[in-house]
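Moderator note: this is an archived Q&A kept for reference. The question asked for a predicted structure of one protein chain; the sequence and the answer are reproduced below.
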Amino acid sequence: MRKILLIALVAVLASCTASQSDPKGNHPCLLLTKEGVKNIKAAKGKMPMLDVSLERLAQDAQAAMDRETCVPVPKDGGGGYTHETHKLNYYDLHVLGMSWQLSGDKKYVEKAKEIFLAYCEMYPTIGMHPIEMSPVRGMLFWQTLNESVWLVHVAMAYDCLKDQFTQDERDQIENKLLRPIAKFIMEGTPANVETFNKMHNHGTWATAAVGMAGIAMDDEELYKKALYGSDMTGENGGFVMQLDNLFSPDGYFTEGAYYHRYAIWPFVAFAQCIDHHSPELGIFAYRDSVILRSVNTLAQETYCGEFMHFNDALEKGFSAQELIYAIDIAYNADRSNKMLLTIADTYQHRVMISDAGYWVAKGLSDGEAQPIKYSSVLLKDGPEGKDGAVAIIRSEDGNSALTMKATSHGLSHGHYDKLTFAYYDAGLEIVSDYGASRFLNIEQKNKGHYTKENKTYAGQTVAHNTLVADRTSHYNGDIKISSEHSPRIAACSMDNQAFQYVSAVDSTAYDGIRMQRWLAWVELPFLQFPLIVDLLKAESSQAHEYDFPLHYNGHMVHLSVPYKRATQTMSALGDKMGYQHLWVEAEADCAEGTTTYSWLSGYRMYSFSQATTANTKFRILRSGASDPNFNLRSEPSIMFSEKCSGDRLFASCLETHGKYDLQVEQAANLTPSCVSVEVVKDDAHTLQVDYHFVDGQVLSVRVERSTSKMTINY
């Protein structure tokens, strides 16, 4: 398919050669086209979502007009004055360009020209950015990634304004600013060369920036390099190769939902530009419409409109500006996907000022929106879908969701957390994933960058809900080794809403330890809410100390065994691999049988019960130790620990129960129904765990080891 695109592009280049000498009149042609301008003008006052968006554009354009032009010499990191000023400038240029196209008022052209020419004067005088924090250092910004984002927006502005500039002005803007920045992004440093051709979201931003600038400047060579890499062969880099490698066949982005959100912006934006510029390439149909499927997949990775936390992640969701681009452009490419209209209407409340935004506003105005279809899914990872998967099991009403992450490492933003799980319920993340230790664009916090605790805690295994052996992170915290291996999905069944399960195996996170986990969603007639069954089997011929952490959101209510609380002083749990960042708030010795821990989150109770022995230690923990700068969020967790001579089955369940209503001062059903977890059989052929409930009910869970198939009986 890539060869077909390359052959088609050669024909495009040949056909464009004659027109390059006189590009005037071809613009705008990136996200906003002449047809789009005509449609938007005609729709004013007729489409509410479009009118709201146009009013916002007018306000932003007026603010840009009122601001004094300022193009400072770069010196600050993320969140600092010069950093934020250059961000504001690219946004101002973008809104000024669109405002000119829609109003025809020359004042917008003159203001934009003033900003452009100020950059033409400043940019040739600067060198590398003074802050040396990134291996891919920028000039305008502390990292080249921000340079790419800047150029994406400025290219859209230039596309809208180019025809209003004189030839001399175009020469200045292109030769003193746009081409030098594009060249810097592609080849300014050895690290930039590598990044431009890299399979990574930074590479996607770089190729989109250079490609969009190439189209805006009618430079087909830049456009071709963006599509097919620096050598233009399509074999060593470029946008098309990124489409081949960064998405799985299911549209899962290897870095996880948060960075899928970030990467989807340049993917859809550049794809829309390619479709306008070279429609014969059929970019939205490429690789079985992988771009469009990835937007749908990203929607499935949300809960209550927010992205689930896999790998490095902050709080973001459908309302993020990147998703406005993604939803609008995806709908424009496939107008049969009416659920995208509901996403725009429910979470975004505005559209892009572009051809795509017009069609979303029109679809909403015509009443075509359809409900968002959430479902239980297994999202395979890797270019061929062979690098594990993320499993998402949902309730029928969408109120609850269970996830298991059994994927590849996730490139530089990945964590050491094979077979980890999380649980969402009643609008909250109940069993939680820490995400990232980062204060985005707060300069006082490591100049807006990730804090060191992102590596020392957030990425370490103990910060997740999975098994830790010998207080050492998976793969000993070595990304090179971790990136070479992925878990295997052993079994998955999502056909029966009342009983869904997934199982995954990992034999490489630790030398000599095989881990297999089964997570099941079970709806029982005698329980108020679904029961989450968790079986985690560790097999080894050697003795190990196993830690089983569970991170949660809420307030401790009850522990079924006596415990000792630290009331005067606390100590850190350990001195490395994330353990140094966990305060020990309480400790307990478990008894033979079952240990249950209950907490309150929102207006419901949650109880986690595990089969324990007399050798099991229990701890109540909280993040924040060994953190002199308060970089970590203070979040609670619990941990079951045990030294084992060989194999160990961690048999548990998570029960949701009760109601706690402060408004009417009522509390009901606050005691869990599960009274014990009994391991009935644990051998090479069969696992059987019985869950005993009040009033004598029993849920018997059985696993055939040869097939990993799970069955239940009650």
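Archived answer notes: Residues 81-103 form the longest helix (23 residues).
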